[in-house]
Amino acid sequence: MGADCHSIQLIDGDGVFNVSGLENFVKAMNLAECGLSYAVVSIMGPQSSGKSTLLNHLFRTNFREMDAFKGRQVFQSQTTKGIWLAKCADIEPSTLVMDLEGSDGRERGEDDTAFEKQSALFALAVSDIVLINMWCHDIGREQAANKPLLKTVFQVMMRLFSPRKTTLLFVIRDKTKTPLENLERVLREDIQKIWDSVSKPQAHKETPLSDFFNVDVVGLSSFEEKEELFKEQVASLRQRFNHSINPGGLAGDRRGVVPASGFSFSAQQMWKVIKENKDLDLPAHKVMVATVRCEEIANEKLAHVTSDEEWQELEEAVQHDVVPGFGKKLSSILDKCLSGYDMEAFYFDEGVRTSKRQQLESKLLQLVNPAYQSMLGHLRAKTLDAFKEAFDKALERGEGFASAARDCTQAFMSKFEKGCEDASIQQAKWDPSKVRDKLRRDIDAHVSSVRAEKLSELSAQYEGRLNKALAEPVEALLDAAGDDTWPAIRKLLQKETRAAVSGLSSALSAYELDQETVDKMLLKLENYAKSVVESKAKEEAGRVLIRMKDRFSTLFSRDADSMPRVWTGKEDIRSITKTARSASMKLLSVMAAVRLDDESDNIEKTISRALGDNTNANSGVTDRSIQSFDPLASSSWDEVPIERTLITPVQCKSLWRQFKAETEYTVTQAIAAQATFSNCSLLTPEANKRNNNWLPPPWAIAAMLVLGFNEFMTLLRNPLYLAVIFVAFLVGKALWVQLDISGEFRNGALPGLLSLSTKFLPTVMNILKKLADEGQQPAAPERRRGPELDSKSFRNGVYSNSTSDASSNISSPESGVEYSSPSTE
């Protein structure tokens, strides 16, 4: 019996607690895995009353027993010294049993009863069931029945520990023929008298013994005289210890049970407190027990909340979205936890209970705070999104920007406040001001962003209007290039700028901006209007040479009625050339600088003085060899800032030289046309008619059709020939149209051939140049330009002017303008 049982001496005879032995015992028995599913049984009673024998038979332990042949008189020492601990075999749940040193032993003497009281108190403190072993014939005796010890224990238990129902199982040994009912009645009366005599706290003055202890009595026959009957009764009693902690089981109240993993520490601390107070005045132990137990209860409640399904669902839900009624739900969970703690820790020391409650509350708040912050985060994000949507709709409805921002901000900040109230919990006074401030900053940032975007769109809108209102009119005015060009541009600029500034100022009133910001935006718009004009002027200045040649061509090749000029020999080519060049020079002087300020300059006079009187209209050569002073030999104009300069004086000189070189050919051809017309006028009408008939005779056309039939069929059989002929036809058609061959031969074959000989090469080069330009530049709509000096044609003595194909470039480092113009072959 007891072969598989493990036992240790928990406390030796001197009161030393076996710490390492208990820890090893707990590990060996895997007690930590039991949680709360274990029971503790202890036995106390007179020395040599058969306590160890009873435990060995009842729980199959291996405690040391007294030799019956030696007896208590001869046996010089106690069988059990101190307190021994073992694990019961084959009983569920795991049951620990403590064998206490017997009382009334002669080894300690009559005066040294402190250890007996301490061990009895320890047994009552840690045990669920306490067996009190007593002889049947000692019932009714004051000392033998341990009445003084029970009285002391009751007093201390009431004062130190929370009320818990401990089962006191009185085992009457060597039962006589006296009925058990009579013995139990006497025993209960004695116990009740002890209970009534114990002083109690005011709250338990009238509390019956049954609220604290379950008293039970069992009788056993003599082991020595009726061993078999004794074993049968013990086996029957053993059955009552199976599942003793279940509801209705033998174990008493389980509220104060320490989890099995903490049993070792709890027992150590209890014995330490008990051992240090020999007179059993143990107020410090109350605090210790309350501290340990309250902390355990708090941990249990915290663990319960952590594993609570409702909390887990709430925590999971709040990670994804706003949870309606979050504060009430969370407050309910926390209130349930704290109420449970208050109920279970009610009988412990008030100071400790309150302190541990505060710690529990702090831990609970730490546990739920991330969920609360997540809730506020979702609430802030949702409120911000709703604000953005409502704000955009308010702007779409046409509400003023400032009023819409103000109203929406106020409405949604109020909505956020209500959401914070719904999310708040009763147990904490958390301040959502940081999240509120962040929301306000986010709203203000969004309003600022939208304001900046709207103001940018508004500025771009009025800039676009200005660009549309100024760009083309300014281009047209510069194309005309007269004395009133820049005054007209200034007038147009002032008119359009005034209208745009007025419109923008009116639109900005809805934004309630400060005056400084409004002034900056209006000034920016005015500057933009000026920049449009300046940009267009620079653009046109880059094409000034083309403009000059266009103007020269228009005035030189057309009369006052804009009809093509016929060179009959009566025209004053010198005067016409001078007029056309003067107009081109006027255009050059107008394009030389930006004149948005109403200030006069001498650019036109300078150009006219330097370029106007030094040429011969017939040949274009210089009348004076070298001027003593060249007004254009400079990189800037007098009284004109460099930033307003479009074409520098030296560039003007270079442009004029190139302009003259490229227009002299036109003048030369006009002179040749006059000579040709004069020669043709000497021919007879019959000769002119013959010369004008350039088609072959009808019989020749019929012969070509008949003789060329085979070749025609060959073309039909081979489409490649047709493609080549088609391309040749397109090229020929283009030359036919450009050269105006039919028109050239109206006056006869000889004049036509003379005219075509001068036009053929420039026309071919011009076609190739156009094809090359179209291949290099991306497709884009082109601005309408004036006629260019592409080729020279004479039609019945009528001159048609076009520019040549090659180009030359002049770049200005000061103004950054590049000039492109054709050059003569």
From TrEMBL:
Domain GB1/RHD3-type G: 35-254
A GO MF label: GTPase activity
Superkingdom field: Eukaryota
Topological region Lumenal: 717-719
Location in or out of the cell: Endoplasmic reticulum membrane
First-level EC class: hydrolase
Region called Disordered, residue ranges: 775-825
Known role: Probable GTP-binding protein that may be involved in cell development.
The protein, known as: Protein ROOT HAIR DEFECTIVE 3 homolog
